[in-house]
Specification:
The complex is a heterotrimer of chains A (405), B (369) and C (511). Chain B has 369 residues and is of the alpha/beta class. Chain B is built from twelve helices and twelve strands. Chain B folds into two domains: 133 residues, 3-Layer(aba) Sandwich (Rossmann fold); 188 residues, 3-Layer(aba) Sandwich (Rossmann fold). In chain B, helix 7 crosses helix 8. The radius of gyration of chain C is 25 Å and the shape is globular. Chain C is built from 17 helices and 24 strands. Classes of the chains: A mainly alpha (405), B alpha/beta (369), C alpha/beta (511).
């Protein structure tokens, strides 16, 4: 009997999960994804046309249809190989999106995620190279320390805001620069540089995220990163929606004054929120770097392009995912998917950056589309109301007329 | 709604069928390093060589951009190139060493040309070059030597050096440069100024305001010429040289950079394009001989200064003659230019009766104890 | 007929809300026409359409019988329509003259020439007896004077049709009298005047005709001399309304709360916002604080509740000092607070109703266990309050608060505060912007609290409210308490004199 109840409950929650109303909020995001892809395809078409007409001199003609094919096929281009690649690339994106989105939810703009990613990665590298431990403990420690260090990094921004009223965006940007040079200082000062390549040294196998030999996990770089990311999504979902902590943080985020009025410690909440956001970014950084063959390159430009960019992508993911943990999961997967498609555009003689064009358009649209959607919806409602008004007035008139006659 | 979904699914299916039936067939492939093919340096030089050979000989060719900078991403890009029909894959730069190590066994039927590096495992424990792989290194120290020699011979006695990063190839440029400068000073019986603080590894190959400021400071402090072995960062030094008062110069690197700025007096050429061409000639001429590392120096024509010395002004002919003479000496083996180690540079300077240990320390820092 | 403005069958729709539904409004030349209705009846929308701020979705406007389109306030100015908005549109750091000429400055060689304008303003000032110093800065003059500046602004632009949006909301009774006088002057000059208001006494005092709106619909236009206040009220609310508040005599007992010598010094403005304020609130009484907006009431409340720090002074609750207690400690001790601004302080608008109802108590074991919210208990609790306090909303306890009406939002706050069962209830402007039904309800709840032996501190800008509810009245002027009055023995006029600082009383401290 009890089981039956339980089963009914589970069935109900599954049904709820697929209720269209639950996804109403995602409509603007989906619309903008559609727009972005259409725009990308149009751009590809124009490029192809210009090449055919000879406006662009090119040695290798772009192949339009093939290009659209590989772009849309995204992570399905090379079967399991590319699916594994997508999941691998998605994990840090999801975590970065989670970090920025969580801060958004609590009323903060954590543009410091790139710096926190650097600190998370730096700490993981340091533990990986400087501490000797057997396998599970070594990578776990590196991961944990990366998370904590980046949490402190975020906490500094939060404390600056809460205690000294320094706007978090200003503090974040400063901390981003500080993070790069802190990383260089620690890496160079502690002999963690490969002098042949001016990169960090290869981490020992014990400090790499487990690779696994089953199913998808046997492919290339694929590791447990994606599992960690999904777990983080679940944990953040629970924190935001089921706990008093999340309740408080959201309250402060939505309305700081009202939270203060209600007796909440808004300063502490800002600090806690930035620390959690920093921890998530740090997790992203550690996962990013605890991979065989992935290094910090010791130039500012390479750090920006290869490591910090994940943090900036996190902003896109958060926007696209409407700052929701579940949203970050889907948005991160989508971004990885379309980038994977972009990568295969190499084959069709298009630039891989086409994927970034699409992402950029999507972000623009998702910023606009919430507004557009509201306008369209309001307009519809208004037109209906006006129509009703006219009908009722006409009725009144005919009734009046009838009486007169 | 359902109809739209159905249409979308149909579109997807047709697209997938299209995917299956195209993909191109490009025999010569290049994988780009972190910069693009227009980086005015390594990628571009290699690519231009490939284009030159392929268009002359009617071969198909193509470059691929990896997803990110990591060993696996490079390996995946190689896989993509193979899927794109590559028979020979050319990779410019030492960052490909680990990826090629893996790829050469994964794709034994494909030939690999690794410029500026030798395949090894990520931890440097094992070096191995299979028969389908050829490594090409350059004697950067020799061309650095010519650059320093020509500069001093041309009357520029206050010198500076910008290195992108303290990696072996760049260090070789710098060490050769120091040796050449002091060698010319000794020849001419002049004193040159080259303090250790005017020898710098910038930690970046990108043009930055910091690099420009640093160059400007050096120029105003009396430095007459800076050898910028720093990729794009060289343009920062050029901008500073143009803006500085008096005649200030830059020595370019890798390619002939005289077109980039009037301040470029000469360039330390590295024949990456030529290297690519000669590897392709071997491959298509059935004279491929893999499993080895070749070093292209003055003898092989891998390094040189450009033939045009007009920027030296009145001294042009004289400098050109001096350069050709010293080039012949090096080719003949009469001069052994120190490579990338502090010991040989120190010994070289001592032989000339010069002591500038601080500069030597800067060029290749002593290994940590 | 000699109509100067006719608005015929005007409709305006915002989203799902029909702000104006087929309203007809006709203004005769030289009359004072009152436009009355409760909050949300559509008065401001209608006048904003006339002033060109909104475009009607249906209907037409005629000026002297001709159809006109008013696309923006400039069009309205051209038709000599002027409007004094409820919230003045003045630049604080400009002088009166500069504000009046703003937008139609005279210049010579690119430099401002103020002399002509200043003279013109002085003429107008004499003509209509609107005394303001043309060289004073707006930030230095009283709200009443600022209103005169707004009126001068209309006159300077030669307006013949003058619209006043709730002109008396911020005035003292004396200032209201003066305004009524000014309006009668305008009428003598042949100007046509529209007064938007919900205060029927003013309508009776000054208007010739009155148009009543209710929920976006026009209920009718009447000659004021033919109707009574009660008929107007009935037209406005749609049912019979009693203005009398049933109040038992107070049963005053021990002191609950005492403030001693509270001062708040504002460093930026370099003045005391609250200066040496002392008072007490006893069990079973309602203490009302009257005063014009901006005379330190808000700051005083914020100091008591802990939202703001005081410069000096002490607070006592049941004789125990609570000066340094945190907001949460004060809440836990038993202080309830109905805040002045329900959107800024009272509610998290993006939370749903249930979440808002536990805003101060979410951390109590009743609603959480080991950091996890007990959703079932929370929604059960919310449903109880919803039925007990008759809070209406689209989706019950799960309604997003933003989507609820102002009255129901306020009910939610009151439900939350009362159900926490505080000893001292601080109610600031508890009925601002609400319709009569909601006002009655809230007044009754406040009296209920008092009758249950609680202490109530009521701060309001509405003198009616203060007079009707309070058992004791304190008047604040420029941060100080200038009078303590017995509502039974005082009058509007007397309180007004204290509010405007014209009279200072002696306050007997019972310490």
């Amino acid at each position: 009997m009890k089981f039956k109840n339980f089963a009914a409950k589970v069935w109900q929650s599954i049904k709820n999960l697929f209720k269209p109303s639950r996804y109403q909020a995602a409509v603007p995001s989906l619309i903008s994804i559609g727009f972005g892809i259409v725009f990308g395809i149009l751009t590809m078409f124009v490029i192809w046309l210009l090449a055919v007409l000879g406006v662009f001199k090119t040695n290798n003609m772009p192949e339009f249809f093939y290009g659209v094919g590989v772009l849309l096929a995204g992570a399905f281009n090379e079967g399991m190989d590319s699916i594994a690649d997508m999941l691998f690339a998605a994990a840090p994106l999801i975590l970065a999106g989670l970090s920025v989105g969580f801060a958004f939810k609590t009323g903060l703009f954590n543009i410091g995620a790139p710096g926190q990613i650097v600190i998370g990665g730096l700490t993981a590298i340091t533990i990986g190279l400087k501490v000797s431990l057997p396998a599970p403990w070594h990578w776990m420690l590196a991961l944990l320390c990366g998370v904590l260090a980046a949490g402190i990094w975020g906490l500094i921004i939060g404390a600056l805001k809460a205690l000294l009223n320094v706007h978090e965006v200003v503090a974040s940007i400063m901390m981003n620069y500080i993070s790069i040079y802190t990383a260089f200082l620690i890496i160079k000062g502690n002999g963690m540089v490969n002098t042949q390549t001016s990169q960090t040294l290869q981490l020992p196998a014990s400090a790499l995220l487990p690779h696994g030999e089953v199913a998808l996990f046997a492919y290339y770089d694929m590791n447990i990163g994606i599992i960690i990311a999904i777990l983080a999504v679940i944990v953040m979902y629970i924190i935001l929606h089921k706990t008093t902590l999340g309740y408080q943080l959201k309250a402060v985020g939505f309305n700081k004054e009202a939270s203060k009025y209600a007796g909440m410690n808004t300063k502490r909440n800002i600090m806690v929120s930035m620390a959690i956001s920093g921890m998530l970014a740090g997790l992203a950084g550690a996962i990013l770097i605890m991979v065989s063959g992935k290094y910090f390159q010791l130039t500012k430009e390479a750090m920006m392009a290869e490591i910090m960019s994940v943090g900036f992508d996190g902003i896109s993911v958060a926007l696209l995912g409407l700052s929701q943990p579940i949203g970050a999961l889907f948005a991160g997967l989508f971004l990885a998917y379309i980038r994977q498609g972009g990568y295969y555009l190499n084959l069709a003689n298009y630039m891989a950056e086409m994927a970034d064009v699409i992402t950029a358009v999507i972000i623009y649209f998702s910023a606009l589309s919430t507004a557009l959607y509201a306008i369209v919806k309001n307009r519809k409602i208004k037109l209906e109301a006006l129509k009703k008004l006219r009908i009722s007035r006409r009725k009144e008139k005919t009734q009046d007329g009838g009486e007169n006659v | 709604m359902k109809k739209a979904l159905l249409a979308f699914a149909l579109a997807l299916i047709s697209v997938f069928t299209l995917v299956a039936c195209s993909g191109g067939n490009y025999e010569i492939a290049m994988i780009t390093d972190s910069g693009g093919i227009d980086d005015k340096s390594f990628n571009q030089g290699t690519w231009e060589g490939i284009v030159e050979y392929a268009t002359e000989n009617g071969k198909t060719y193509k470059y691929y951009k990896p997803r990110e900078v990591s060993d696996t991403a490079y390996l995946r890009a190689i896989k993509l190139a193979v899927r794109g029909g590559a028979k020979i894959v050319i990779t410019p730069g030492y960052l490909f060493e680990t990826a090629i190590y893996e790829a050469q066994t994964l794709y034994p039927e494909v030939k690999f040309v690794l410029i500026d590096g030798e395949p090894h495992t990520a931890d440097y424990a094992t070096y191995k070059t299979e028969a389908n792989t050829m490594n090409i290194l350059f004697d950067e120290h020799e061309v650095g030597f010519y650059a320093g020699y020509a500069a001093v011979y041309g009357g520029l006695t206050n010198l500076g050096f910008f290195g992108g990063m303290a990696v072996p190839a760049v260090q070789r440029f710098g060490i050769g440069y120091i040796a050449g400068a002091y060698y010319a000073a000794d020849d001419l019986g002049v004193t040159i100024t080259f303090p250790a603080e005017h020898y710098e590894y910038l930690g970046s190959f990108a043009p930055t305001p910091e690099a420009k400021t640093k160059a400007a400071t050096w120029y105003s402090g009396g430095v007459q010429v800076i050898f910028a072995a720093a990729g794009g960062a060289g343009s920062s030094a050029m901008a500073a040289a143009v803006e500085a008062t008096g005649s200030k110069y830059v020595i370019g690197v890798d390619k002939d950079q005289s077109g980039d700025s009037t301040s470029v007096i000469t360039s330390a050429l590295k024949g990456v394009g030529e290297a690519a061409i000669s590897a392709l000639e071997d491959f298509y001429g059935n004279t491929w001989e893999g499993g080895r590392t070749i070093s292209l120096g003055s003898v092989e024509g891998g390094v040189a200064l450009p033939a045009d010395f007009s920027r030296f002004g009145a001294n042009a002919a004289e400098v050109k003659a001096a350069y050709e003479a010293i080039f012949a000496e090096v080719v003949a083996g009469n001069i052994v230019v120190p490579t990338n180690d502090r010991a040989s540079l120190g010994a070289f300077l001592t032989n000339l009766g010069v002591s500038n240990q601080a500069l030597v320390d800067k060029a290749e820092p002593a290994p940590a104890a | 007929m000699d109509y100067i403005i006719e608005m015929l069958n005007i409709s305006k729709i915002f989203g799902t809300l029909r702000a104006n539904d087929d309203i007809t409004f006709q203004l005769k030349k030289g009359e004072v026409h009152a436009l009355v209705g409760e909050n949300g009846a559509g008065k401001s929308t209608l006048m904003s359409i006339l002033f060109g701020l909104y475009q009607p979705d249906a209907g037409e406007i005629r000026y002297k019988g001709e159809v006109v389109k008013i696309h923006n306030p400039n069009d309205a100015n051209r038709l000599k329509i002027g409007m004094v908005h409820q919230h003045f549109k003045l630049v604080d750091v400009f002088t009166v003259t500069e504000n009046i000429i703003l937008g139609m400055e005279e210049t010579k060689n690119g430099f401002l020439t103020l002399e002509n304008s200043r003279n013109r303003i002085l003429e107008l000032r004499e003509q209509y007896k609107l005394f303001v110093d043309p060289d004073a800065y707006i930030k230095d003059i009283t709200v009443g004077m600022q209103q005169r500046v707004e009126i001068l602004k209309m006159l300077y632009r030669d307006a013949d049709i003058l619209i006043f949006d709730e002109p008396t909301a911020v005035l003292t009774p004396q200032e209201i009298d003066e305004l009524m006088h000014t309006i009668k002057n305008f009428k003598k000059e042949g100007k046509s005047i529209v007064i938007i208001t919900h205060k029927l006494a003013e309508v009776m005092a000054v208007a010739d005709r009155c148009t009543v709106l209710r929920k976006g619909k026009g209920i009718g236009t009447v000659e004021v001399k033919d109707v009574t206040v009660d008929t107007l009220a009935e037209m406005m609310v749609g049912r019979k309304v009693s203005f009398e508040i049933d109040k038992k005599p107070a049963n005053i007992k021990d002191e609950i709360f005492r403030a001693e010598n509270i001062s708040v010094f504002n460093n930026e403005k370099n003045k005391h916002e609250v200066h040496d304020v002392s008072f007490q609130v006893k069990s079973g009484e309602i203490v009302g604080i009257a005063g014009i907006e901006g005379n330190g009431q808000t700051e005083l409340v914020n100091v008591i509740t802990g939202l703001k720090n005081m410069t000096s002074g002490k607070l006592f609750f049941h004789q125990k000092e609570i000066t340094k207690n945190s907001i949460r400690q004060k809440l836990e001790l038993g202080i309830g607070h109905i805040p002045e601004d329900r959107h800024k302080h009272g509610l998290v608008l993006d939370f749903n109703l249930a979440e808002n109802l536990i805003l101060q108590s979410y951390y109590l074991p009743k609603f959480q266990k080991r950091g996890f919210l007990k959703k079932n208990e929370i929604y059960q609790y919310a449903n109880q309050l919803i039925s007990r306090f008759d809070i209406r909303s689209g989706a019950g306890s799960a309604s997003i608060t933003r989507s609820m009406s102002g009255g129901n939002q306020q009910k939610a706050i009151i439900a939350r505060e009362i159900s926490r069962n505080p000893e001292l209830m601080i109610a600031v402007q508890p009925t601002r912007g609400l319709d009569i039904g909601a006002i009655e309800y809230i007044h009754n709840k406040i009296i209920e609290e008092r009758d249950n032996g609680k202490g109530v501190l009521l701060i309001s800008l509405e003198l009616d409210e203060i007079l009707n509810l309070s058992d004791r009245i304190l008047v604040m002027f420029e941060g100080e308490i200038v009078a303590e009055l017995d509502p039974k023995k005082t009058s509007f006029q007397e309180i007004g004199l204290y509010m405007s600082g014209s009279k200072k009383g002696v306050i007997a401290h019972e310490v």
